[in-house]
Amino acid sequence: MKPEQHFDHAGLSPMGMQMVPKYADGGRDETQDVVRVSSAQVQNLGMRTAQVKIGRLSDSVNVPGTVAWDPQLAVTVSARTNVTIEKLYVRAPFAPVKTGQPLAEILAPQWSAAAAEYFALGDAKSTEGRALQASARARLRALGMDDATIRGLRARSGTITLRAPIDGVVGQLDVKQGQQVGEGMPIMTINGLDKVWVEAAIPQAQAGGIGAGTPIAATFSALPDETFHGEVEALLPDVDPA
Q1: Alpha-carbon distance 10 to 21, whole Å?
Q2: H-assigned helices in 18-144
Q3: I need a surface site. Which of 132, 141, 163, 178 has the fewest CB within 10 A?
Q4: Is 150 exposed, middle or buried (0-12, 13-18, 19+ CB in 10 A)?
Q5: Is the pTM of this model over 0.70?
Q6: How far apart are CA 230 and CA 211, in angstroms?
Q7: Could you read off the pLDDT of 49-101 as tens digits, one per residue?
Q8: CA 234 to chain centre
Q9: What does the buried/exposed string (b/e) look like for 81-109 if buried means 16 or more CB atoms within 10 Å of the residue's CB?
Q10: What is the rounded CA–CA span in Å between residue 115 and residue 98?
């Protein structure tokens, strides 16, 4: 209450009030902000101390997932003209195939004349003969025959052999032997196996902080002793209402 009065020790003022320390630099006693806990309380509470460090908080989310085809590796074998499936070498889905393996024998009237010309020029040695063969090949391409089919052409009873363009597994078979297929209709889909996708459904409440590049560790019940490490490729903009 009397600013002109100063004392060199802590305690009560003559008026009975607790005196507050004052320092030359205008600071305050930092020990007044310290919380002290007795050793007995530390033991009873099981308290632990650690050094404060700047770092990244880490968290893990455990969710079920499924292994799926990589749609970027899927190839559709389609009818580029009106054809009849004379013979199917692949009769059921999930059959493994290798590049160049016969898939089906087809009868394509629109391709027959051009294919016969291509076969006739197959042994051409002269410059003119090779030029005619190139023209026949260009005609086949113009009629809708792809390079894989042209490379796999075989003269067999007027039919043309369709061959697998990649290694993989037949994921979908859309035709039966003897069926007529219109231009542009799919015959089968082959899924490549160089890569597969792991699709995981993440609850909305746990999706925060997960995005492309987030590291993952995947385990599979069929391979209990192995852990596969990778990263999130994409967080799809798709929400399951359930």
Answers
A1: 7
A2: 39-45, 109-120, 127-142
A3: 178
A4: middle
A5: no
A6: 13
A7: 888 888 776 678 899 999 999 999 999 998 888 889 999 999 999 999 999 89
A8: 7
A9: bbbbbbebbbeeeebebeeeebbbbbbbe
A10: 24
- State the residue for tokens 């893990």: 60
Residue 98 half-sphere exposure toward CB, CA atoms < 13 A: 1
Q: Which residues of 166-199 are buried (b: 16+ CB within 10 A; e: fewer)?
A: bbbebbebbbeeeeebeeeeebbbbbbeeeebee
On whether the CB atoms of residues 179 and 115 are closer than 8 A, the answer is no
Which residue type, as a one-letter code, is found at position 90? Answer: V
Question: Which alpha helices (H) appear in the chain, and where do they start and end?
Answer: 39-45, 109-120, 127-142, 147-151
Q: Which residue has the tokens 């390079």?
A: 147
Structure-token match 């199917």, residue found: 88
Q: What token pair was written down for 196?
A: 């597969």
Instruction: For residue 127, give both structure tokens.
Output: 């410059």
Q: Write out pLDDT tens, residues 112-136.
A: 777 777 777 777 778 887 788 788 8
